[in-house]
Structure formats: C-alpha cells, structure tokens
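As the next step, I selected for study a record pairing a protein sequence with its backbone structure tokens, which the following lines show:
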Amino acid sequence: MSELSIRPAIPADVPVIFHFVRALAEYERLGHLVTASEESLRDALFGVRPAAEVLLAHLGDEPAGFAVYFHTFSTFLGRRGLWLEDLFVLPERRGRGVGKALLLACARTAHARGCGRFEWTALDWNRSARDFYERLGARLMDEWKLYRVTGEALERLASRAAPVAND
C-alpha cells in the first residue's frame, strides 16, 4: 500500500486542483456548471486575498484527493467556523483512508484555529458520503435549507435599489 500524505497546496498545484474540480463536477453530474479555469483558481486561492485553502492528498507520488475550505463566522458563537466546500477522492483511490484523512486534517485545522463550527453539505443522493460523515460523528442539519442566487438572478438582485427609510 502506498504511503498517504497530506499537505497544503501551493501555486504550482493549480493544474492538479483544477483536475480535481473537474473530476468532482463530473462525479456529481454537474460538469456543465464548471466555469472555473486554472487562472481563476490561481487568483482565488493564491492571489492577494485568498478566498479558500486547499489540502492535497497523495498516495505515494500520485495525487489522490483534495479538500477545499474557508472560514465563515457565527454571530451566535462570536467565532469563526470552517466551511468544507469540497472533499473529493478519485474513485480509483478510494477505500484507502484518503477521504477520512482529509476530513480529519480539516477538523484539526478548525480546532487549532479556535473555530466554533466545522460544516459542509452533501448531495442528498450521495448516501455513501452521508453515511461516511455520520460514522465520523457529523449530524445532518435537516432543519436548514440552503438558498443560492447565481448568474442572472444575482445580477438582478444586486441591481435592485435599496428601500429608502422614511425618517
């Protein structure tokens, strides 16, 4: 069995990260939604104001998976949280502890940074991922519904005039 290693990504890893993004999108049947490029990822992850961080997992010298995460904030806790945006292991590299190691590395990061929460979503049809998370102690927050505004709907919302208060 190849040795498993996990490390933070560096700018030279952007092609590998982009490969994982496309592979994840295809796995989730959402490849048609990928508009990212290597250039946009390089800027977003390693530019002046990085939006997220990436951990890369390797089995020996071969890339096996990645985790993308960023900070959130809870007003109720008055503390940062850590949001796991993506966790993906190449199908041919699954069953070797890569996903668990990536999730645990993210949890350790959240704990070390004093985060009050570590959260993520999973697609409802991905029962194997949901079972995996629940075996590790995660709890489904089914009372919350995720809302999203993108594309033209975001443009329309952003262009609406704010209501004027009557003073």
Notes: The chain has a mean pLDDT of 94. The chain has five helices and five strands. Residues 4-141 form a domain with the Aminopeptidase fold (CATH 3.40.630.30). The beta strands are 4-8, 53-59, 62-74, 79-89, 117-120.
